[in-house]
Amino acid sequence: MKEYDFYIVPTPIGNLGDITLRALETLKSVDIIACEDIRVTQKLLNHFNIKTKCISYHKFNEKERIDKFLAILNEGKKIALVSDAGTPLFCDPGAVIVEELRQHGFTITALPGANAVVTFLSQIARDDEDFLFVGFLPRTKDKIENILLKCKTTDLVFYESPNRILNTLEIISSSRNNPKVAVARELTKVFEEIIIDECDNVIKYFKNNLVKGEIAALVFRDKNIKNDVDLDEKINVLKKKNFKAKEIAAILSALYNLNKNDVYKKIIEDLCKN
Question: Hey, which of 8, 36, 71, 232 has its CA 20 to 30 A from 102?
Fold first, then answer.
């Protein structure tokens, strides 16, 4: 098997049995393991009796670790990068050192393995393959609404914390007129749970059931808008030109191959909300 200087190694997102044989072999064979929290990674290493030395590498010390890692690699040693759970560089540190190492000509490879997005989506039936993953949503309502507005024609996937999920779902429901959503918690763990329903129903469910564990969620695309056009912008432009709702629907359906009744319905719904 070809050897590399730097290995990006996924670790289980909950069930330790999900680690791959290649990941275990890599973690045993390298000289250093760079990890977010040594205490978290040490539990994994102890479970599999791995004695490799660990060095902390997290979002607060990414840049200052560069020289140390370069020195280690220049000695001919090898480094593996892990995050607390899942695949590094997915909402986890790693981008800074990977970019730096490529510029210095070191060889890098990534091992396949656990990832919350893939684990989540593999259990959700969707109309199309495309989706947009945005990591953790912003904390402000305006920024969340802006993302939702831009992602009406594709499935939107994001991570969220249990203490913010209800507030986020309420923003989604009001902004997108109670869309269909999927919310997963405790993926791969004993109490794994995935709820797929209209947003308001999911809100009611979680108000009556304690929310624990990290969360992955999906807002399904608006099925009434099948074109990649920024419909809201086009509607607003025509409104400013004093076109009536039926006229706007007819124009946009002709120009962008949209269903005229769906466009008209959307205009009326937006008027009622405003």
Answer: 36
Q: Give yes or no: residues 143 and 200 share one domain.
A: yes
Tell which residue, 114, 127, 132, 88, has the closest CA to residue 16.
114
CA 210 to chain centroid:
23
Q: In this predicted model, what pLDDT tens digit does every residue of 110-123 receive, in sequence order?
A: 999 999 999 999 99
Task: For residue 144, give the DSSP letter.
Answer: H
Do residues 123 and 200 share a domain?
Answer: yes
Tally of domains within the chain: 3
Q: Give the torsion through C-alpha atoms of 160, 162, 164, 166, to 10 deg.
A: 110
Edge to edge, the sheet with strand 108-110 lists: 53-56, 32-35, 79-81, 6-8, 108-110
Contacts of 146 (CB under 8 A, 6+ apart): none
Q: What are phi and psi of 191, to 5 degrees?
A: -100, 35
For residue 1, being part of any structural domain is answered with no
Please, what is the average pLDDT of the chain? 92
Q: Which domain holds residue 149?
A: 117-219
Residues of the chain with pLDDT under 50: 227-228
Q: How far apart are CA 189 and CA 160, in angstroms?
A: 17
Classify residue 226: in a domain, yes or no.
no
At a CB cut-off of 8 Å and minimum separation 6, what does 150 contact? Answer: 230
Same domain, yes or no: 102 and 22: yes
pLDDT of residue 72: 97
Q: Does the residue 225 lie in any domain?
A: no
One-character DSSP codes across 5-28 = SEEE--B-SS-GGGS-HHHHHHHH
Residue 157's nearest CA partner among 224, 95, 221 is 221
